[in-house]
Design brief:
Shape: globular
Strand order of the largest sheet: 1-9-8-5-4-2-3
Low-confidence stretches: none
Number of strands: 14
Structural class: alpha/beta
Mean pLDDT: 96
Radius of gyration: 22 Å
Number of helices: 13
Helix content: 25-40%
Length: 391
């Protein structure tokens, strides 16, 4: 294949049916909050086995609403993983809360339940326990949610699953998103995710009070429901703002695309499974470390992250990354640990506190992984990888 071929690390898959669904909305009377939004919410909730779903304009918005629904505010403490996109931590800062991080497992880059237990024991002695913990299902592999949930019962914190990578994943043979081990689960529908709505996110919960609060806050804190109003309606035009909410609404245009994509979710997951298994086989004869597996956890394979062995020379990681990009392979790095960002550095975080996150950052490369990736494209990626690693 041409060395200039550009194979991105991720991309959307848009079908004629997806386009037709969006065009149907464009020709309808509803472009913003019409029938497609609740239909999309119902489809995702039904797929995951959750009671309620609230669609919003991004997963970041969903994380923010989830924190607000759980009462996060100034003086509270929220813990999350350092190996994630900044939104997993920013959502707590939006509420005025303090943020800290729990180091990750060395092979999965998921928030480590053992490290969490140790941190919690010390935090209880110091009298400063977290109000909310946000485990992140990195690359689509679920965290050890049973262990994290058990700790929540012992220490009294609430749980938001950041499953932005993980719609279609399964934990203990049940869909991620059923909220069996959490208060709220958040999905992302960004174009590089498993399914896309263009931009969008969704918060799932089994608690009707949490769902009602997130639904209220996503639309300016305004209600037209007479049962929620503080006074009797003055007329059919009447509405009340009950809280200081936000314009986080998803449009029908976005929801129509997401709803259409849901019909192919299982197909997307099956193809990603095949791509991941093929990578595993093709890279088996190299010293590169391939993604870890866990019994009882099926990854959605949002990312396929390899790691350069720790005993390689210090320049191997950068040389491999640059070499692959020069060959048209759009590799990426997920993620720069959040505490390394200038905003968080000024808050005083020390990288030495998170040795596993530092090792992950120094060694990881995300290879192309998406539903439309062909076998020939994957062969080219692996061939380039072999040549560059052996250089």
């Amino acid at each position: 294949m041409n060395a200039r071929l550009n194979i991105p690390y991720g991309r959307q898959s848009i079908s004629d049916e997806d386009i037709a669904a969006v065009v149907e909305v464009l020709r309808s009377d509803w472009l913003t909050q019409g029938p497609a939004v609740p239909a999309f919410e119902h489809a995702v909730a039904r797929y995951c086995g959750a009671a309620h779903a609230t669609a919003v304009n991004s997963a970041t918005s969903a994380l923010h609403l989830a924190c607000l629904a759980l009462g996060v505010g100034p003086g509270d403490l929220v813990w999350t993983s350092p190996v994630t996109f900044v939104a997993s931590a920013n959502c707590a800062r939006y509420c005025g809360a303090d943020v800290d991080f729990v180091d990750v497992e060395p092979d999965t880059a998921n928030l480590c339940a053992a490290a969490l237990a140790d941190r919690l024991a010390h935090a209880r002695q110091a009298g400063r326990l977290p109000k909310v913990v946000i485990p992140v299902h990195f690359a689509g592999l679920p965290c050890d949610m049973q262990a994290i949930h058990a700790l929540s019962k012992e220490y009294g914190f609430r749980i938001i699953e950041d499953a932005s990578h993980a719609i279609g994943a399964r934990y203990q043979n049940e869909p991620v998103g059923n909220c069996r081990y959490s208060d709220i689960t958040v999905f992302s529908f960004h174009p590089v995710k498993i399914i896309t709505s263009g931009e969008g996110g969704m918060a799932l919960t089994n608690d009707p009070a949490l769902a009602a609060r997130m639904e209220l806050l996503r639309s300016h804190g305004i209600t037209r429901d007479p049962e929620q109003m503080e006074s009797a309606p003055h007329g059919p035009w009447y509405y009340e703002q009950l809280e200081l909410g936000f314009n986080y609404r998803m449009t029908d245009i976005h929801a129509a695309l997401g709803l259409s994509q849901m019909t192919r979710l299982d197909e997307f997951i099956a193809h990603r499974d095949e791509v991941a298994a093929r990578y595993d086989t093709l890279l088996d004869d190299t010293p590169l470390l391939t993604p870890a597996r866990r019994p009882g956890r099926s990854s959605a394979h949002h990312l396929y992250v390899i790691r350069v062995p720790a005993d390689s020379d210090g320049g191997t990681h950068r040389r491999l990354f640059d070499g692959l990009r020069s060959r048209g392979v759009g590799v990426n790095l997920h993620y720069i640990p959040v505490y390394r960002q200038p905003y968080y550095q000024q808050l005083g975080y020390e990288p030495t506190r998170f040795p596993q996150s530092e090792r992950h950052y120094a060694a990881s490369i995300s290879l192309p992984m998406y539903a439309g990736l062909s076998a020939s494209q994957q062969d080219y990626v692996v061939s380039a990888l072999h040549e560059e690693f052996g250089a």
